[in-house]
Amino acid sequence: MNDCASDLDAWALTLGARVETDGRTQFCVWAPDHDALAIQLESPAERTIPMERDAQGYHRVTLSAAPPGTPYWLRLPDG
Description:
Blueprint: H1 11-14, E1 16-19, E2 25-30, E3 38-41, E4 47-50, E5 52-53, E6 58-63, E7 72-75
Antiparallel strand pairs: 1-2, 2-6, 3-4, 3-7, 5-6
């Protein structure tokens, strides 16, 4: 199983943006039809961070520089 969705009851709590107990934020998206996704952060400086894809189609990245309230969006391969 993966970090994003360990069972059917937990998926709603683990997909999307989730603040971890250590203060980092995990972003997780299920997009099996895409080979690559990225998180676009707007502050403190605009930047794009690639997400890692697993065999089940979950894309994820954990960031220390994305506290609650940080503006972001999901960037698809076609822009």
